[in-house]
């Protein structure tokens, strides 16, 4: 029997995250962890005209590192949603499939969310649909320091900081045309938005070729 995947919820996750999801029969989202800063939980990387651009969701001040993940609040003292959408549109406005997905994604950047978890979860559902991935997503019912054998634990394995990443031999990023590739070369493992806007209906096949090995 193939293992189920245990992984944290991220904001506009990278290609590797979705490649892992694409080969799992069931995805179990870690719902009982504590928030960890400097991770993909509230940041994403896209390809801008001058290189990799980081998008960061601002959080309410406090001891976020010690808060249960579903109690972390988004800060709205600045127009971060408008700025994120402007950055996305600037980066991918000329991508072949931007207009195809923009109308369903743009409303998320106009709706105010209180909780980081809710924001990330709703975006994940939208992105899974856009990528045409039919995946059973469940929430963990407890925190596992040592997960049971039927779970593949990829919590914190996909991380923006190289020194904190965990090797995953099954992931082999497939090259695809990018908007600014002629200027800065191919940039692997950006947010799934990069792959989606650049390849459209080929997203799911590319995810599967990027991660052929079964759990």
Low-confidence stretches: none
Determine the N-to-C terminus distance.
9 Å
Largest beta sheet: strand ordering = 5-2-1-6
Strand content: 5-15%
Count the DSSP helices: 7
Largest sheet: 4 strands, parallel
Averaged pLDDT: 93
Alpha-beta classification: alpha/beta
Following the backbone from N to C, one meets helices and strands in this order, namely: EHEEEHHHEEHHH
Helix content: 25-40%
In angstroms, what is the radius of gyration? 17 Å
Task: Categorize the overall geometry.
Answer: globular
Number of strands: 6
Describe the structure.
- The chain is α/β, with parallel strands linked by helices and 215 residues long.
- The chain contains seven helices and six strands, in the order E-H-E-E-E-H-H-H-E-E-H-H-H.
- Helix content is 29%, strand content 13%.
- The model has no long low-confidence stretch (mean pLDDT 93).
- Strands 5-2-1-6 form a four-stranded parallel β-sheet, with no helix packed on it.
- The longest helix has 15 residues, at 116-130.
- It has helices at residues 15-22, 80-92, 98-105, 116-130, 181-184, 192-199, 203-209, and strands at 4-7, 26-29, 43-48, 51-56, 136-139, 151-153.
Key descriptive features of the protein:
215 residues, alpha/beta, four-stranded parallel beta sheet, two-stranded antiparallel sheet
């Amino acid at each position: 029997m193939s293992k189920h995947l245990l992984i944290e919820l991220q904001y506009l996750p990278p290609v590797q995250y979705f490649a892992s999801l694409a080969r799992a029969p069931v995805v179990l989202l870690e719902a009982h962890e504590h928030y960890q800063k400097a991770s993909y939980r509230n940041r994403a990387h896209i390809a801008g005209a001058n290189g990799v651009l980081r998008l960061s969701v601002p959080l309410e001040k406090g001891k976020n590192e010690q808060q249960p993940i579903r109690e972390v609040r988004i800060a709205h003292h600045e127009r971060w949603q408008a700025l994120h959408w402007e950055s996305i549109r600037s980066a991918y406005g000329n991508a072949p499939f931007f207009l195809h997905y923009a109308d369903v994604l743009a409303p998320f950047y106009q709706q105010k969310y209180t909780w980081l978890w809710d924001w990330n979860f709703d975006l994940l559902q939208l992105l899974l649909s856009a990528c045409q991935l039919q995946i059973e997503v469940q929430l963990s019912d407890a925190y596992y320091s040592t997960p049971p054998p039927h779970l593949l634990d990829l919590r914190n394995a996909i991380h923006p900081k190289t020194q904190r990443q965990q090797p995953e031999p099954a992931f082999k990023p497939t090259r695809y045309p990018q908007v600014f590739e002629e200027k800065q070369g191919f940039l692997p493992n950006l947010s799934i938005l990069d792959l989606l806007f650049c390849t459209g209906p080929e997203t799911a096949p590319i995810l599967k070729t990027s991660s052929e090995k079964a759990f």
